[in-house]
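TICKET: design request
STATUS: open
ATTACHED STRUCTURE:
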């Protein structure tokens, strides 16, 4: 009887011992299936995210998608990190002709970069074309393109002579989107380039360094509390009268914040000349007490370029 009980107990213990092993076998067989399902889920999620981005890039910032309005301002976040990686310079030109900010009694919402009619204009980042429009011969942006990017920005390219994209078209950074021109409210061929977040214009010089054909870093951290100061610094470092040499933020801010000193400097020496009928580079050089070579170098033009009345030339 005792031997029988011992035998039954031993059998029972063996059965109990085999349960974890069988359970482990089941888990082992299930593991590849779980991994496969996880991969399927990840692929499906990735496709869903890509589809949402295709339909409306940066949908977490923008509530609508339409193909007419150049921009519509909404509430800005207090802080927002903008990914500048994977960029392309909109033009190869390194010549800036106008800064972001106050100009001629009104706010200039972008940078003006010297380009010639027919020069290739490229998408600054990958995204989706939202607007392709012509505002008219002598008004606004002229022929312009608006692209909404996955990093949250919208970029605007104004005064072009020709479009190379259509609304709702996906574009990659560096892809040609138009040709340089002088359409709309323009006194000479150039690219008007804007960077907007939630429809609000931000100084492109905070992100783009046209002189060095580069961006200012991998990211730009927008902060409401410091934006104005940083924008003034960017104009001094990378604007029309700026310098590529580095300086401390305190030094730059103290200089930029002195509005009276800035106004005196601007009043003391005008920087632009509006071409009148019959004028030539030589007559302008004599009038402005400079040289033809200096004017050509400042504007990136040749000595034999034909001037048009109303054209704006930088001469100092």
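STATUS: resolved
RESOLUTION: sequence designed for all positions
ATTACHED SEQUENCE:
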């Amino acid at each position: 009887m005792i031997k029988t009980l011992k035998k039954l107990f031993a059998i029972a213990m063996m059965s109990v011992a085999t349960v974890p092993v069988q359970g482990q076998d089941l888990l082992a067989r299930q593991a590849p299936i779980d991994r496969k399902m996880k991969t399927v889920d990840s692929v499906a999620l990735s496709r869903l995210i890509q589809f949402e981005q295709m339909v409306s890039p940066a949908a977490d910032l923008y509530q609508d998608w339409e193909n007419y309005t150049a921009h519509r301002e909404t509430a800005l976040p207090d802080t927002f990190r903008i990914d500048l990686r994977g960029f392309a310079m909109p033009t190869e030109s390194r010549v800036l002709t106008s800064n972001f900010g106050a100009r001629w009694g009104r706010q200039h919402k972008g940078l003006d970069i010297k380009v010639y009619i027919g020069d290739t204009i490229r998408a600054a980042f990958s995204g989706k074309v939202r607007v392709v429009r012509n505002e008219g011969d002598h008004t606004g942006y002229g022929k312009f393109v608006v692209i909404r990017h996955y990093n949250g920005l919208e970029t605007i390219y104004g005064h072009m002579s020709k479009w190379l994209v259509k609304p709702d078209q996906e574009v990659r950074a560096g892809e040609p989107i138009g040709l340089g021109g002088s359409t709309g409210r323009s006194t000479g061929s150039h690219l008007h380039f804007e960077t907007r977040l939630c429809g609000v214009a931000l100084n492109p010089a905070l992100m783009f360094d046209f002189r060095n054909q580069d961006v200012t870093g991998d990211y730009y951290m927008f902060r409401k509390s410091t934006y104005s100061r940083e924008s003034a610094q960017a104009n001094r470092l990378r604007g029309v009268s700026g310098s590529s040499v580095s300086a401390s933020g305190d030094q730059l801010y103290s200089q930029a914040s002195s509005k009276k000193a800035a106004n005196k400097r601007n009043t003391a020496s005008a920087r632009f000349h509006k071409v009148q009928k019959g004028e030539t580079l030589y007559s302008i050089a004599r009038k402005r007490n400079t040289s033809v070579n200096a004017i050509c170098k400042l504007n990136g033009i040749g000595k034999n370029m034909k001037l048009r009345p109303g054209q704006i030339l930088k001469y100092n």
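CLOSING REMARK: Residues 243-270 have pLDDT under 50 and may be disordered. The helical segments are 2-55, 227-238, 249-256, 259-268, 281-287, 292-299.
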